[in-house]
Amino acid sequence: MSTPPGGDPVRARLERVSRALGPLGQRVVLIGGSIAPLLHTERLVKRPRPNEDVDGVIDAESYLAQGAWQEALRTAGFTEAIDAGMLAHRWRTPDGDLVDLVPAGSQLGSTGQVWDVLALRHFDVLEIAPGVFLQHVRAPVLLAMKFAAFRDRGREDPLYSADLEDILVLCRPAIVDELRASEPVITEFVASQAALLVTDFDIEDLAAAHLNNAYAPAEAMIIAIGRLRSIGG
Length: 233
Hints:
Layout: H1 9-21, E1 28-31, E2 54-58, H2 63-75, E3 79-80, E4 90-92, E5 98-103, H3 114-119, E6 123-129, E7 132-137, H4 139-153, H5 162-170, H6 175-180, H7 184-200, H8 203-210, H9 217-232
Helix pairs in contact: 4-5, 4-7, 7-9, 8-9
């Protein structure tokens, strides 16, 4: 599980997980903070926010299909991570990396989140290493996921919200145009949440705190807030 000297630990872990999944990776769309660095198109921060696991969603339309998926993971050498908390759908790869692979949809055992279903429709394929591929959610859907998470668990203490940090860094140069080209449910939700963020909070202080790891913190803060205001209309 070591990373070569000078290597990127985020990409190294994603490569290990992708290799462990093998052909099963064609059924997984990776989401969450662990893949956010893949979506950064400008070097805004010096290092990505650390994550303890890799998150993904799968398309399992029934409880029976979920059982078949779990058996396929076991055959590939994955084990239930009962030692890493009581989260359902948490696994360890043969290399020991933690992964949360959750069925999308409203059926029993699934997340019930509309964003997880949308992730299965809006993803890109990346060759993370020669001959090793992964599927990751596109930036507009991940931004919607992060806004939903911030609304549910970050608003009470935004200064320490990892979701808010991800939101600020995900406001990449093309995000406004990407959102305009997205499905209305994505565009409208992100716009409404961005507008609330810049009006309901002291966004300057929050951005300054969350972007203190930036190469040029003052400039990064101005850029991120400007893009949030553009998104919020």
